[in-house]
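pasting input
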Amino acid sequence: MKKLLLLYCILISFTTIAQVDTLADKGRKWYIPDHIKLQFAGNIGFMSGGPGYLSRNKTLETDILFGFLPEKFGGDALISLTAKTTYSPWRVPLKNTYYVVPFSLGFYLNYTFGPQFDSKWPTYYPKGYYWWATSFRPGAYVGGKIGKEVKYRKKIKGLELYYELGTYDLLLISYVQNTKYLKPADILSLSLGLKMAF
Amino acid sequence: MGDTQRWYDESADFVKSANSQRGISFVIHAGDISDFGLSQEFKWINEIMLQLKYPYVTVIGNHDLVANGPLVYKKMYGELDYSFEFGDNKFILINTNSREYVFDGSTPNLTWLQSQLNNNPGNKNAIVMAHVPPFDADFDPKMQEQYAHILSSDPNVKFTLYGHQHTFKEGTFYDDGVKYFVTTSMGARGYLIVTTWKGGYQVERIEF
């Protein structure tokens, strides 16, 4: 299972590498991330953070985030790992190297650690008894961001603040089948994040 | 009633139907409160059930034992096996979801069940209620016979109540005088009204 996840991460990394802007990075090794993100909420942890890569045309970000949910907020302390990809087709420049990214669309796959979560159901269940894996949660979101290009000791190149409004498979199916009782707001969660590019 | 699972619209309709009945003392949820064992699901169902004009209690279902479900269930509702007395009745609610424990002989806890039946000095109607009925494949087959025997050996047990199978059922499945009732799911839009008096009972199927 962990091997599977690693494979997934490596695959994502490889697809990203192909798009990394080698010219601008002037000899930066392919595996050095283009940015780090710190995120609050969004179904992948109370707080999560980790490295990410940006495509050459700057529309596609791919991140690996380690998430933590403290017992105080989750009822149980949980640690998770998330691979997410965000597509932001438009970038609107403003004054003083500020810019707005009005629309982003993305999806993620989250893996939660813990013996209570299964990736493959044990054999003592008949086939298809439970149809979903409890450790993996795929989700999707829309969002936007504002950013500023900066030059700080040649290390930090940019800062971005983003928001995302998203949900995941199990909540979405619950909503789709109960549109009378559940409202979209019941399954959507808002997350806020900070991205530092270097 | 039971098996609310992913049927929020139907569960809300159940509450309307139950609230229009007369003479209801309380509601028992036969388990599978949630579908995926998510705390969000337990909260939604609780929000719906709190619209009842009556109190409600629960017994745990197999879906409630998935992932962190047991943790959520214990925080919201308490122990997985418990009992209480109400009027001329002693309700014994027991976890019978054997498959979730790999049929390891721990579930249902027959020692506990026996002690609960023994501890009934007033000879009240003993009403055992659980999620998985003993004749279901998810009940430990090695324990089925003994479970039925424990119930039939107690003269205070006249009938017993279950969920899980998403269909109404009733019958003396073990030819031992104990009548087994299974209530249907919220998806099938039905529930049972159980009336008891000293030494007697009546069960009525309701569809909404």
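fyi Chain A touches chain B at residues 75-76, 116-118, 122, 124-126, 130, 132, 134, 170-171, 173-174, 177-182, 186 (CB under 8 Å).
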